[in-house]
Amino acid sequence: MRIEQINARALEKVNYDRYLLSQAIAKRVNELINGAKPLIELPKPNMQLTEIATLEIAEGLVKVKEV
């Protein structure tokens, strides 16, 4: 799946609130940096942490709460 499609699906999960999505991605990236395991099987090696976080949100594996 292309990153544009993943971003569109992730935006759907947060009711098209780009600010909320960016906050959720940043929070998940910090969790990954601090040792959390990805919740998805990586479709390609060497994915960036932001791509992993966005894909997890798009798949509904990470719940996003309003800030």
What does this protein look like?
The structure is a single chain. By secondary structure, the chain is mostly helical. The protein has one domain (3-58). 55% of the residues lie in helices and 0% in strands. It starts with a helix and ends in a 9-residue tail after the last helix. The model has no long low-confidence stretch (mean pLDDT 91).
List keywords for this structure.
0% strand; 3 helices; 67 residues; mainly alpha
Total count of strands: 0
Number of domains: 1
Inertia-based shape: globular
Mean pLDDT: 91
Q: DSSP helix count?
A: 3
Helix content: 55-70%
Q: Report the β-strand fraction as a percent range.
A: under 5%
SSE arrangement, N to C: HHH
